[in-house]
């Protein structure tokens, strides 16, 4: 039986590098320290930021040329979130429309 070891992974959430850990019985190829995980993602960050900026710019161009906006809807109460989704919003012939963007 393989012994489980604590391994780390780095990711970006909200534009900020985060690190979490989990137990793995197959640590080969994983990061054994938080510092190693952070160091591993550093060379990829500039390419990821460039890709994000390209996607954001293309979305803005699409919004402008097609006349729509992306928006986020979250509905809930003190018992939790009941519904959340990304919407496409636009106006047409004097009416406002909002449709959930479902993939």
Q: Which consecutive residue ranges, at least 5 long each, have pLDDT under 50?
A: none
What helical percentage do the residues reach? 25-40%
**How many DSSP H or I helices?**
2
Largest sheet: 3 strands, antiparallel
| pLDDT averaged over residues | 90
Tell me the radius of gyration: 21 Å
Strand line-up of the largest beta sheet: 3-4-5
Roughly how many Å apart are the termini? 41 Å
Category by helix and strand content: alpha+beta
Provide the number of structural domains. Answer: 2
Order of helices and strands: EEHHEEE
Number of strands: 5
Strand content: 35-45%
Shape from CA axes?
elongated
Could you explain how this protein is built, in words?
With 103 residues, the protein is of the alpha+beta class. It has 2 domains: 1-56, no CATH class; 67-103. Helix content is 29%, strand content 45%. The protein contains 2 helices and 5 strands; from the N terminus they run E-E-H-H-E-E-E. The chain has helices at 34-41, 45-66, and strands at residues 5-13, 16-24, 69-77, 80-92, 95-100. The chain has a 3-stranded antiparallel β-sheet, with no helix packed on it. The chain has a two-stranded antiparallel sheet with strand order 1-2. Strand 3 (69-77) and strand 4 (80-92) form a beta hairpin. The protein is elongated, with a radius of gyration of 21 Å. The two termini are 41 Å apart. The relative contact order is 0.11. The model has no long low-confidence stretch (mean pLDDT 90).
């Amino acid at each position: 039986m393989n012994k489980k070891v604590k391994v780390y992974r780095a990711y970006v959430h909200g534009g900020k590098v985060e690190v979490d850990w989990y137990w793995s019985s197959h640590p080969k190829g994983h990061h054994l320290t938080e510092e190693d995980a952070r160091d591993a993602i550093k060379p990829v960050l500039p390419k990821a930021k460039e890709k994000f900026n390209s996607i954001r710019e293309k979305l803005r161009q699409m919004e402008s040329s097609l006349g729509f906006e992306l928006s986020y809807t979250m509905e809930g109460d003190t018992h939790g979130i009941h519904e959340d989704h990304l919407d496409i919003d636009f106006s047409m012939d004097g009416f406002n429309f909002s449709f959930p963007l479902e993939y």
